[in-house]
Design a protein that fits this description.
The chain has 16 helices and 12 strands. With 399 residues, it is an alpha/beta fold. Helices cover 42% and strands 15% of the residues. The two termini are 27 Å apart.
């Protein structure tokens, strides 16, 4: 991997940053675009927010639509994927006895979101246990289909899971849900910029993803996608200037000249839209640096590092390679105090990486991005070996 990409990022030199999956990292040129918009905003706030905002927001939606295989009218900016998914979860007309079908690999903030919705509506979350290790698309699909009943109203899945860094093969479960009249809601927090996306091709109803992770935009930039025929179901979490009581059928314009779906979610008074306005710059940065090749190298380095740790621990991976997220891998480690290991990795080694317990597994979740390097992976293996008491085994294996 070309190590000179590190110069394009703002990360601290004294930190080995192996946690791109949590909040991402923004390249310098993209961050400069972000700051330029902030300066424009502060230079004339009324002009920026009062006269220009509607037009300013069109280019990022157009760039996102193209990036996601859809159109600008089907995507709207959000602060993060959790916010986008909350709009959907709190808009669906659920009632007592309805069921939300999901898995045991979901992100904790969304587990809380659905728990909140169920408390308000009387609906129920049904959690299926995904067969592990994850080696079969058929077993995954069969498990979900077996959980579908006449009470199932929502299928909620991560596209790439947060705790286990798995790429769920969601196309067939979505298709089965569609046959049964079940709404499909997908958490794509880790997906945009990580694996290719064609949202119409997935035939998904609602999909929210972060731009600030693998697309490398500034923090506070994400999107919500909704199928055109379902956009009228969605209500904003905050009622503001973009809301209208008029008909919300597809094609009807809101008060700012966009589809109502966009106006009511986008136009919310005083907030800084600069992170979203930098989306086209992030896409351009990827194109300029041949990010397909960068991702290929990152994937190879991530899998190689996971393989090296496996040789030391003897612990089986959580999945076969085709279901592992390309640039992010959940690496099993020996039983330990994960909070203490995380603390020591930071305090002693200045390595930023999540370490946690998930179900019966102890995991270090490695992210590899274009600014990372092989020496950093060597340093991680050395630190984990020492902290987990594998140093003697490592020395024996390597002479």
């Amino acid at each position: 991997m070309s190590s000179n990409l590190a110069k394009h990022f703002l990360l601290r030199d004294d930190v080995t940053f192996l946690n791109h999956g949590s909040f991402g990292a923004c390249p310098r040129p993209v961050f400069e675009t972000y700051q330029r918009f902030q300066l424009e905003l502060e230079g004339e706030p009324v002009d920026f927010l009062g006269r220009r905002l509607t037009e300013l927001m069109k280019p990022p939606r157009e760039a996102l639509g193209k990036f996601l295989g859809t159109t600008a009218d089907n995507v709207v900016g959000a602060i993060n994927a959790t916010g986008g998914l909350n709009i959907v979860a709190q808009s669906l007309p659920l009632k007592e006895g309805d069921e939300i079908l999901t898995t045991d690999h979901e992100y904790s903030a969304l587990e809380k979101t659905w728990a909140y919705v169920c408390r308000k509506t009387g609906a129920k979350v049904v959690v299926v246990k995904v067969p592990m290790p994850f080696v079969s698309e058929q077993a995954f699909t069969d498990t979900l289909v077996a959980g579908m009943t006449e009470r199932t109203k929502v299928l909620f899945l991560s596209h790439i899971t947060s705790p286990t860094a798995l790429v769920f093969p969601i196309a067939r479960p979505i298709a089965e849900a569609k046959k049964r009249g079940i709404w499909t809601v997908i958490d794509g927090a880790h997906t945009p910029g990580h694996i290719p996306l064609d949202l119409p091709g997935l035939d998904v109803d609602f999909y929210s993803g972060n731009c600030h992770k693998w697309m490398m935009t500034p923090k506070g930039s994400a999107f919500l996608y909704a199928r055109p025929e379902l956009q009228s179901m969605l209500d904003p979490l905050v009622i503001s200037h973009g809301w209208t009581a008029d008909n919300k059928e597809p094609g009807v314009q809101g008060p700012f000249g966009n589809p109502v779906f966009i106006d009511q979610l986008e136009m919310m008074g005083t907030r800084d839209p600069s992170a979203m306005l930098a989306v086209p710059s992030a896409i351009a940065f990827r194109e300029e640096h041949d990010w397909t090749s960068v991702q290929r190298a990152c994937t190879a380095l991530a899998q190689e590092t996971a393989g090296r740790l496996h040789e030391l621990t003897g612990l089986a991976p959580l999945s076969s390679p085709e279901f592992s997220a390309p640039q992010m891998v959940a690496m099993p480690i020996p039983e330990c105090d994960p909070l203490e290991v995380h603390k020591q990795l930071w305090e002693r080694y200045k390595i930023e990486i999540p370490v946690f317990k998930w179900q019966d597994h102890y995991i270090a979740r490695l992210s590899v991005q274009g600014y990372n390097s092989k020496p950093q992976m060597d340093y991680l293996i050395e630190a984990l070996s020492d902290l987990l008491g594998m140093g003697a085994e490592r020395k024996r294996q390597h002479g």
